[in-house]
């Protein structure tokens, strides 16, 4: 067994719970995955979080008393200081005192952190931004989120909602965003945006290839990528365009924060150069030279573990909630 200090970390998602126990160097000693079953309600999800952490500990021959605490990475806006999930649409939760509910059952220090912020912290401690103090992490999936780290600490803003980088408005008359505004980065560069543009192209008869691959299934980013790889120019342009918009969003972030590292994570990173190439190119073209000289722009290294590892590291680093 490791003689390092230990913590448990949980990544609570809308569909699955991922738990791990790790030492302060980020070595994973045990892990567990199970469905969230969010429809069964808060109490049931709390039971499943506790059972999942217990299983991860058992894989490492440990129990709750052997770890310094439990960090939980949670989706959507939250209030770490009060241990509250303010709003988690994919769990159907509003104002759930998750920390209190879990701590009562596990009997150890428990904290929560927004998933993008936790992932940013994980990448800073153990991943692509190791050794850096000023880090931006942008997660690219059906939505776009972000984590901001300044001087080695998560920046949460006045009420814990900082980092909503997906809602930088780039096109005032652009596509409608989930937040109600128009032309947000998320409405132009996310997986949802790519799928929407592909759907339009199929409906307009502009891409027989995409229509053929999609068939009766809904259009996803992977389908657009597959069509692009088969030489479909419309599919390729949809991904490139989303990448260029992403780059414009990144320019704003780079010029505002002057970070040492800008890390891109999430499922859309799998679109590869077709998406990331135009994004990094736009950032390099429009960013300030001094800022570009100091920043490493790259993709995340910890994959699906970044949030849980970051949440665990907040415990072993004794960061305040
Ligand atoms: Zn928005």
Please specify the SSE layout and strand pairing.
Layout: E1 6-12, E2 16-23, E3 28-35, H1 42-59, E4 69-74, E5 78-79, E6 84-88, E7 93-96, H2 98-106, E8 109-114, H3 115-126, E9 135-140, E10 144-150, E11 153-154, H4 185-189, H5 191-203, H6 208-214, H7 221-229, H8 233-257, E12 261-265, H9 273-286, H10 289-294, E13 296-299, H11 306-316
Parallel strand pairs: 1-4, 4-8, 9-12, 12-13
Antiparallel strand pairs: 1-2, 2-3, 5-6, 6-7, 9-10, 10-11
The chain binds zinc ion.
Can you walk through the features of this model?
The protein has about 325 residues and is of the alpha/beta class. The chain is built from 11 helices and 13 strands. The strands form 3 sheets. It has a 5-stranded mixed β-sheet. A 5-stranded mixed β-sheet has the order 11-10-9-12-13, with helices on both faces. The radius of gyration is 20 Å and the shape is globular. The relative contact order is 0.15. The model has no long low-confidence stretch (mean pLDDT about 95). It binds zinc ion.
Structurally, the number of domains stands at: 2
The order of strands across the largest sheet is: 3-2-1-4-8
Low-confidence stretches: none
CATH fold-level label of the largest domain:
Nucleotidyltransferase, domain 5
Largest sheet features? 5 strands, mixed
Strand-pairing-aware structural class = alpha/beta
Which small molecules are bound? zinc ion
Mean pLDDT: 95
CATH architecture label name of the largest domain: 2-Layer Sandwich
What is the CATH superfamily classification of the largest domain?
Answer: ATPase, nucleotide binding domain
At the first level of CATH, the class of the largest domain is: Alpha Beta
State the total count of DSSP E strands: 13
